[in-house]
């Protein structure tokens, strides 16, 4: 499937729907990213960002750009920094799929949480703000911002485990015994519903954050496709899960990195700072949430691999590389379960 953007069609639509839009535009697709293809749009007077559903046959409920648009629009004016949402197009005849246009935020993006080009003090400050924003997401008053219907009621972890098990089975390309065992363990060790229900990002990590060009401050949180109402500990565990990965372009983790020398927090210190911000005494059963996050990421990457094999991935080569991590995540999930 072609991911080339019909700029004339976008410009024609934007003239009628994006306030202040003028002139013709050019588009450049951002590299990386395996979910919704994203483009930098340039006009003579302003730059924008367009995010669309990929073309082709997609899994039900996946690539929900309408939900991305809604949640970021709702968060405008809260303590959670987001880009300004400008317009959403539900008509898939314009460019072949739904899309939305938002402001372009000048910022830095760090693919590696080790941030090798920064000083220890700069790294420490950025990680502290990353922690602050995560706590802010979970502190959002969902009634005030109009998101009280943004996710179904009930046990979040049970619901998510059921959902991603179905998604994994629908995209499975080979048998992975560790994944089957992990799914069984999660079902057998599901904690009781403690009634915590907040906005959750679903994929919170450093490379989904825009950092100010000249300050250690998060200026926008991106990639809200997996956001919903759920359990906040799953977001926190997702950060810790990511750091356990190899410190490589594909792994984007901190495995083997001397965190103290780099000015980076240990897992325990990051969790402690989060709990202090939210007034929590600590977190019971954290190993469950960690195992759950490994499972969910394995299921997500299996979908990435399947789309790459089917030819409708945003970046097929990288999709296959990321898909190779599925057995690793399944195995790591079992190790987390046994801690």
TrEMBL record:
Residues 27-251 form the Aminoglycoside phosphotransferase domain. Pfam families: APH (PF01636). InterPro entries: ACAD10-like, ACAD10_11_N, Aminoglycoside_PTrfase, Kinase-like_dom_sf. Transmembrane segments: none annotated. CDD domains: ACAD10_11_N-like. Gene3D superfamilies: 3.90.1200.10, Phosphorylase Kinase, domain 1 (3.30.200.20). This is Phosphotransferase family protein. The lineage of its organism: Bacteria, Pseudomonadati, Pseudomonadota, Alphaproteobacteria, Rhodobacterales.
